[in-house]
């Protein structure tokens, strides 16, 4: 069954976007990404510069994977920082895609909703294809869509917590409200079942890093998430049975034979 989707017109088969940070070694990073089957890998210019000596080896390993690159503005706290880093990333990595992160609070690394909207408008006007990392706030998502974002990336939970989808109602509302927008759950997923649930809600994909990179066996966990994402998508396409308040036997009693002991 063909079930493709797209990010700003780029057609994809895998619904798994994966990060390149926090792995025990570059080799494990590379193999985990391969095992994920992902076609998109995120990377940060701030953390790994291709121009540095150490960064050159890392950059070569990323290039060898042959995937679409999604640079991010991780660690930025101001609009100026985020816009500057986005422009540098476009020049070095050769892509207009940018995962826009703009942190508003250090306690839970929550995106700053107001500054995020302002930075998004600037970058869209500069020709970037912006994938904003945001909270599950419906109104903020509406502002981002109205600016021209074709992709939104609301969190499931604060980044790195592994708590899963903390507010399914809010996430479902975003999905229902923006039928024509590509939606990707970004941050907070900890186990494969969290990814399954995200896809069952109708989200187009998931982006994660820590859940794979910090697992005891990252390569195997990458495979687990890939299968979970596929299961969730198939479950969404199949359509869930209606929930009921009363039990309903799967085998009807009408017409059943009754056995009598003599």
Question: Your description of this structure?
Answer:
- By secondary structure, the protein is of the alpha/beta class.
- The protein has a single domain, classed as TIM Barrel.
- It is built from nine helices and ten strands.
- Helix 1 (26-36) runs parallel beside helix 2 (53-65) and helix 3 (79-93) crosses helix 4.
- The longest helix has 21 residues, at 218-238.
Kindly summarize this structure in a few lines.
With 262 residues, this protein is of the alpha/beta class.
Map the helices and strands:
Layout: E1 5-7, E2 10-12, E3 16-19, H1 26-36, E4 40-44, H2 53-65, E5 68-72, H3 79-93, E6 97-100, H4 113-125, E7 129-134, H5 138-147, E8 151-154, H6 168-177, E9 182-186, H7 192-200, E10 205-208, H8 210-213, H9 218-238
Parallel strand pairs: 3-4, 3-10, 4-5, 6-7, 7-8, 8-9, 9-10
Antiparallel strand pairs: 1-2
Helix pairs in contact: 1-2, 1-9, 3-4, 4-5, 7-9
């Amino acid at each position: 069954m063909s079930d493709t989707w797209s990010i700003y017109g780029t057609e994809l088969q895998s619904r798994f976007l994966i990060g390149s940070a926090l792995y025990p070694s570059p080799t494990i990073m590379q193999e985990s990404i391969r095992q994920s089957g992902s076609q998109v890998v995120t990377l940060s210019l701030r953390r790994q510069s291709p121009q540095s000596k150490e960064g050159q080896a890392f950059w070569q390993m990323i290039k060898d994977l042959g995937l679409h690159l999604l640079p991010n503005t991780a660690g930025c706290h101001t609009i100026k920082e985020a816009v500057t880093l986005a422009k540098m990333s476009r020049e070095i990595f050769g892509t207009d895609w940018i995962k826009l992160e703009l942190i508003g609070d250090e306690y839970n690394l929550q995106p700053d909703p107001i500054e995020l909207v302002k930075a998004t408008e600037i970058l869209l006007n500069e020709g970037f294809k912006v994938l904003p990392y945001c909270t599950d706030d419906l109104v903020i998502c509406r502002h981002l869509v109205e600016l021209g974002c074709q992709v939104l990336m609301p969190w499931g939970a604060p980044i790195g917590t592994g708590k899963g989808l903390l507010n399914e109602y809010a996430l479902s509302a975003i999905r229902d409200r923006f039928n024509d927008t590509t939606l990707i759950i970004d941050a907070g997923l900890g186990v494969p079942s969290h990814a399954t649930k995200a896809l069952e809600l109708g989200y187009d994909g998931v982006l994660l890093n820590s859940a794979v990179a910090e697992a005891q066996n990252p390569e195997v966990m990458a495979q687990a998430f890939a299968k979970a994402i596929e299961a969730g998508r198939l479950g969404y396409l199949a359509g869930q049975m209606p929930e009921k308040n009363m039990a309903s036997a799967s085998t009807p009693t009408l017409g059943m034979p009754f056995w009598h002991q003599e």
